[in-house]
Amino acid sequence: MLNWIVIGIGDIAIRRVIPAIQAEPRSRLYGLVTRDPAKAAPHGARTWATLDEALADPAVQGDVDAVYVGTPVFLHAPQTIQSLRAGKHVLCEKPMAMNEAEARAMVQAAEESGKTFGVAYYRRCYPKVQRAKQLLEAGVIGKPVLAELTCHGWFDGTGSRSWLVDPAKAGGGPLFDIASHRIDVLNFLFGQPQRAAGQLSNVVHHYAVEDNATVMIEYAGGVRGIVDVRWHSHVSRDECRIRGTDGEMELSPLNGPELVYPGVRENLPPHPNLHYPMLENFVDAVEGKGTMLSSGDTAYWTDWVTEQAR
Length: 310
Hints:
Elements: E1 2-7, H1 11-23, E2 27-33, H2 37-40, E3 46-48, H3 51-56, H4 58-63, E4 66-69, H5 76-85, E5 89-92, H6 100-113, E6 117-119, H7 127-138, E7 144-154, H8 167-170, H9 174-190, E8 193-201, E9 212-219, E10 224-230, E11 232-244, E12 247-250, E13 258-261, E14 264-267, H10 276-286, H11 296-309
Parallel strand pairs: 1-2, 1-4, 2-3, 4-5, 5-6, 7-10
Antiparallel strand pairs: 7-11, 8-9, 9-10, 11-12, 13-14
Helix pairs in contact: 5-6, 6-11, 7-9, 9-11
């Protein structure tokens, strides 16, 4: 049984992470780190105000195996490294870190600790994304040459997620928040990126982070990926298409079930709790029963691309 501590009780933790831990048969929610005990009360777990307090607790030192880091981005690196050095496995929310140097330090800490370190790029666990990878490798659209992903929506910087427009907490705007997922999908499908560049600007919203970003990535073999993300569109888009020399593959919307390629349309819906398969895969890796789909090593390259694009 893997005993978990979750740091931070935000929207994702409440809707997905905590339910995933509670549903995974080899996992148990042991405790929560939060400055708001009222948020923790419904979950019936032990609570601590800070990670320092939690890791200093003798019970945690003996009983807790894993930590889920669900705090804003600026805390990911210090809390991940602290937890790894305390002998805990760590699964961290995305994006991995504020910059490439922090990401590299997190990977190094995991190597030195010998503990399992994963990052929550859960789209790698989508059945249709895994199927797309198989089909691309089988050559169903010939040689892949261009992949285009867009994610457009409206975010004015207010509400419970207003911290996303504070660069000191979030690192950046849609480049960090929503492009990171799509960059990671490209890395999953096509491997280690070779070169990357980007354009960021503020067209509608003039908060302290960009309200749009366009990233271009080059992969081995000549595949080019383009990711365009915007927080100033009243028209929602979640597109993903891959063009090859002999056809194209459509995964739009990326979060939907449909996968279309020459002559075939497949329906491959994701798990109702998008975080559950990722958490299950992480536990498999801890137990030595499988390879982690989204490790610190793979997630590092998303931060590398982001660094090149800024």
